[in-house]
Amino acid sequence: MTEHPNVTIAADDGVVVASLSGEIDLSNAAEITDALLVGVPNEALGLVIDLSEVSYIDSAGVRMLAELDHRLGWRAQALRVVAPEESRSRRVLEIAGLERVLSLDTTVEAARTSVQDPSEEPELPDG
Amino acid sequence: MTSPVGIRGDRPGVVPRISRDDLVPILVLGVLYYAAARLGLRLAIVEDNITPLWPPTGLALVAFLRYGWRLWPGVAIAAFLVNLPITNVPAAVLTAAGNTLAPILAAWLLERAGFRQQIDRVRDVVALVGLGALLSMTISATIGSIALVLSSRIALDEFWGAWTVWWAGDAMGILVVAPFLLCVLTWNQVEPKLGLRRLPEALVMLALLIGASVFAMWNTGQLLFLLPPLVGWIAWRFQLRGAAPAVLLVSTVAAWAASRMVGWFADLSLTEKMLTLQLFNATIAFTAFFLSALVSERTRARERLQRAADDLEGRVRQRTSQLVEANEHLGHEITERRDAETKLRRSEHELAEAQDLARLGRWEWDLGSGTVTWSDDLFRIHGYAPGAFPMTFEKAVELVPEEDRQRIERNLAAALAMRRREVPDIEYRIVRPDGELRALLGRARMFFDDAGSPVRMLGVVQDVTERVDYDRQHRIAETLQRALLPQDLPMVDGLALAARYLPAEVGFKAGGDWYDVIPLVGGRVGLVIGDVAGHGLEAASVMGQLRMAVRAYALEGHRPADVVAHADSVIRVVAPDEIATMTYVEVDPASGAVRFVGAGHPPPIAIDAEGARYLELPKQPPIGVAAGWAYEEFVVDVERGAKVVLYTDGLIDRRDIALEEGLERLLAAAGRDPGRPVEAVCRELITALVPGEAADDIAILAMERLRVREAFRFRMPAEPAELARMRRALGGWLRGVGVEPEDTNDLVLACAEACSNAIRHAYGPGAGTVDIEAHRDDGAVEVVVRDFGRWRQRRGQDGGRGLALIEALAPSMRIERSERGTVVTMRRTLRGAVSV
Predict the structure, then answer these.
(1) What is the CATH architecture of B1-13+21-189?
(2) B805 in contact with A at a CB cutoff of 8 Å?
(3) What pLDDT does A49 receive?
(4) Same fold, B1-13+21-189 and B358-463
(5) pTM for the predicted model, two decimal places
(6) Pairing mode, strands B769-777 and A78-82
(7) Is the minimum CB–CB distance between A25 and chain B shorter than 8 Å?
């Protein structure tokens, strides 16, 4: 499956940007995972998942992000997740403790830059 | 009213046929009539046939009343013969016809009027006087007077005088003679019987009456007033059996005195004499019979009253004894249960001891020589006398069924192959000579020589049949009961419901408790809690049948009292020796009217803002005890937010504390924190009252009448695709009850996590439902998510992510997992301030 109603994929300069929208829960997380994996070619540097337009996400989405990170890691591809400050998605990811595992950005541009030039990224966010 | 004295069936209007058998009675009647007429004529005042008292009419009437009017020829012929000497043939024929017709008419009229020959009612007296005497006798008087005129015995202008005398004489004949004859004929058909001990009284009165009448008649009449009170007294003491003879006696004396012109009659003219005599006789007769009938009526009324009172008293006594019996039965039952428990515990202990000591058999197998030695006990365990036959290994395993034998051999082979000293324990069966199967537990140890070859085996065998049976029974009863109890509670508008069933942990005790929730028409719901006496498979199966019966009757729309009464009939049929206690409750969530019918069950608890109290229902016997008991309902109005808790006695009836103390503890536990939801009530009651293992089954069913606006109830199919709809519904409700957006989002998220877990873990694909309940009290919202499946996977990494989220969002989360499903309760204190 390459297309999913909740997923819009755009590839540019070796970075795949997937904009998600709507609600992500148990009913669609697995399909979205598949759509994203298919949407990232082997030669791509990494994947940016933009959650800005997501109205609801729960542990199914969290699980999805964790799994994507794992799978892309095998391919030496980076995963960055865009979740604006104060957004609902951000709160869920924070509560779930995902910000300690995943790299979160507040804008797609910042994320894209980080994928293209990982060296510019500080090793860990300051505590 | 049918007279107890049969009037032989001559129907009015049907001319009776005279048979040959009637000839003798006709003849007898004729002779008697003739004799009575001759006697009457001796009392004649004028001529030879004008007499103030004509006894034959009374005789004829009684004969017709008792034996039917086909005896008329006797009367007719006798009357003809009596009259013939006084007149010519045609006049005698005419007169005889009148004398016959008048009593026939009288008898017919009296029968139609329902006249009783005992003359023990006022209406009988009135009928006799009015219809029998005054009316009917106009016939004989008219015909007789016409005959007198036609035969020229009297002139035409004397007609009315003759008529009057004739009529009065015949009427008096009826009034004076008929009651006497009837009284004699019905003497033994009247209650009360007169015994000999009343003879002296009767004789004294008879003497007094004769003396008084003779004295009064011969003493110029001034003393005549003595007679009415005397006759009245006799009538009062003896009723008809005194009144009728007295009237006959007084009238006869008076008539005789008048005809002999003696006493006070001496100075009177003929007319005056007739008039005085008739009036006197009529007064005496009427007064006497009226009084006697009145007394009889009153006596009967008093007897009826007495009988009714006796009957009532009898019924009260019966009911009371039924109640006492029910109570005793109940007490007995409780004692019996206690005794049985004690016995069971003791026998469990003894069994263990017996197995440890006597039921332990020992054997030794010398592998070199192949000889096997059994201890005496081992022979006994196998059902043989000690040393019954020489033992070998082959012989020993012959007693074991094929498949178990193979297991033993495999076990042994494995032990030999691995050269292990300890042979693994093995449970196997043996067949005793009488065919009985026993379960044995074998333990053995192998001994090796220095070269490492096995030389000898030593073993012990324990008979564990009872323990195996016991475990199996316990397991089956518990499984059966679980299968029979409702798998999930229905959602009822306006009510929150929660239930718990806790099987007894030990013994054969699982079985008899049940609860049920039955949605009825009109939004009402039936709640049931019950306890079939006894335990084990039998009780569980009775319980299952009762539950279905109660369900069926409730669904048919019977009143609560009738539902219980029907359950009572059902238990009599399905298990005549069993009894059960139960409480049936019909709740109308809209009005709050709750109708209770208790049948020997512990009292329900009502919880409101002020705390908990027992609802003292009217004491009524358990079902299966008092056949036909009219169960009564007890109606309580339950406020919104108030709760009712039903439970079985396992919750209060514990061995280590008295029943009263159990009840007090329960009330105290129930009254704690009255605002908590019903799930919490069930949970905390069990925590508070059953700290260890449950010794008896426990069932709890709790209900809260919700503050409608503040409750959210949602049932979703356990499908991921349904989650979004649930989130919207819950979110809408939360906003509707004024919860701020952030709290709303967090609560929706927490709830969705719990639902997702239920969907992922509780059910297979496409099966089951998840129930969500939420309500808001002052500063908090509680969300309860319930599934009814068995979690196939314990909290693992995946489920853990969801749970971690819930814990972060609603720190007071609680998870209860049981075989009936999982309940996740999340409570979140609201911030009350606007946030992002």
Answers:
(1) Orthogonal Bundle (1.10)
(2) yes
(3) 94
(4) no
(5) 0.38
(6) unpaired
(7) yes
Question: Does residue B609 sit at the A interface (CB-CB below 8 Å)?
Answer: no
Mutate to test the interface with A, among B749, B757, B760, B797 (most CBs of A within 10 A): B749
For residues A48-62, average pLDDT: 93
Q: What residue in B sits closest to A23 (Cα-Cα)?
A: B724
The answer to whether the Cβ–Cβ distance between B805 and A56 falls below 8 Å is: no
Pick the residue from chain B with its C-alpha nearest to A94.
B805
Nearest residue, CB atoms, B720 vs list A25, A56, A95: A25
Backbone angles phi, psi at A82, to 5 degrees: -100, 115
Interface predicted TM-score (ipTM) of this complex, two decimals:
0.87
B725's tokens: 């709809």
Instruction: Tell whether domain B358-463 is in CATH 3.30.450.20.
Output: yes
Give the model's pLDDT for residue A89: 92
What whole-number distance in Å separates Cα of residue B413 and Cα of residue B699? Answer: 50
pLDDT digit string (tens) for B430-460?
888 888 888 888 888 888 888 888 888 888 8
Other residues' Cβ atoms within 10 Å of the Cβ of residue B122:
16
Please tell me the distance in Å from B828's CA to the nearest CA on chain A.
16
Which chain B residues contact residue A27 at CB under 8 A? 719-721, 723-724
Q: What is the CATH number of domain A7-120?
A: 3.30.750.24
| pLDDT, position B6 | 36
* A25 contacts B752? CB cut-off 8 A: yes
Tokens of B811: 């720190």
pLDDT of the residue at B614? 94
| Helix H or strand E encompassing B437 | strand B437-448
Residues of chain B with pLDDT under 70: 1-18, 45-50, 191-192, 220-222, 261-267, 347-359, 469-478, 480-483, 505-511, 535, 655, 708-710, 764-766, 778, 791-799, 832-836
H or E element, residue B598: strand B593-599
Burial of A68 (0-12, 13-18, 19+ CB in 10 A): buried
Q: What is the pLDDT of residue B510?
A: 59
Query: What is the pLDDT, as a whole number, of residue B349?
Result: 64
Nearest to B753 among A59, A88, A97 (CB): A59
Q: What is the pLDDT of residue B264?
A: 64
Go through B3-24 and write b for each residue having 16 or more CB atoms within 10 A of its CB, e for each that does not: beeebeebeeeeeeeeeeebee
List the B422-431 sheet strands across, edge first: B391-392, B371-374, B360-366, B454-463, B437-448, B422-431
Q: Which are the contacts of B754, defined by CB distance < 8 A and separation ≥ 6?
A: B783, B785, B802, B806, B824, B826
Q: Which CATH class is domain B489-706?
A: alpha beta
Does pLDDT of A61 surpass 60?
A: yes
